[in-house]
Amino acid sequence: IVQKSYQDSETGPESSVITKVKGITFSEHRVWDVEEYVKPPEGGSVFSIITRIEVTPSQTLGTCPESMRVSNATCDSDVDCVAGQLDMLGNGLRTGRCVPYYQGSAKTCEVSGWCPVEDGASVSQFLGKMAPNFTILIKNSIHYPKFQFSKGNIEHRKDGYLKRCTFDEVSDLYCPIFKLGFIVERAGENFTELAHTGGVIGVIINWDCDLDLSASKCNPKYSFRRLDPKHVPASSGYNFRFAKYYKVNGSATRTLIKAYGIRIDVIVHGQVNQ
Fold this sequence. Notes:
274 residues, 8% helix, membrane, 47% strand, four-stranded antiparallel β-sheet, mainly beta, 4 helices
């Protein structure tokens, strides 16, 4: 009895996570709001905050030089380019012509696809100047079915508490509103560097509770750490691409965006004993 060997336990609570980001920022050319820099917008447990973009505007379907980053794309004459060849890591179907590159004296094999290709015309924009002040609401509810025990991480108050508070482990434990800069700092990262290269930060919520005690003693504990392998150049950082399509004079046109960002993974775990 002294050792409580009679206790039952349960690990891995059923969990629901809802997130909401707020804040505005600006780049060299425009102002950005949350509808534009958060992907996806549904507010789940995994989402990305875009902090830098490389934009390739006004791409149209046509022919243009292949990227020099593509294997065997450089050439000296048409003989070096096989018509109909398709490189899975390239940008289109090769036409068989060797053409001048976008800048310099180099030549690459011409391709049929969305032109110009990304590295031939992309422009970088940094969105991260105001990003440390973005606020992230992380609403978490957990349930341990064996013991029919449920709890959430938000203070039950009707005085507009959530509109004026931010998270503090001592004074505001049940105000799960975190500044992005706080999360990155607690993960031990440099914000400017992370915003340029992208990366994945884990927000870990741990619910370890003794149900022999009052429910008020069962409290969430938060920790933060970088999840992608920072010191492995081949796999560190985080980026993804998407495009916005429109028509110009009846012709299909798109803006290609390579987005670097801070991906947030909210991970919930815990154990109860009784």
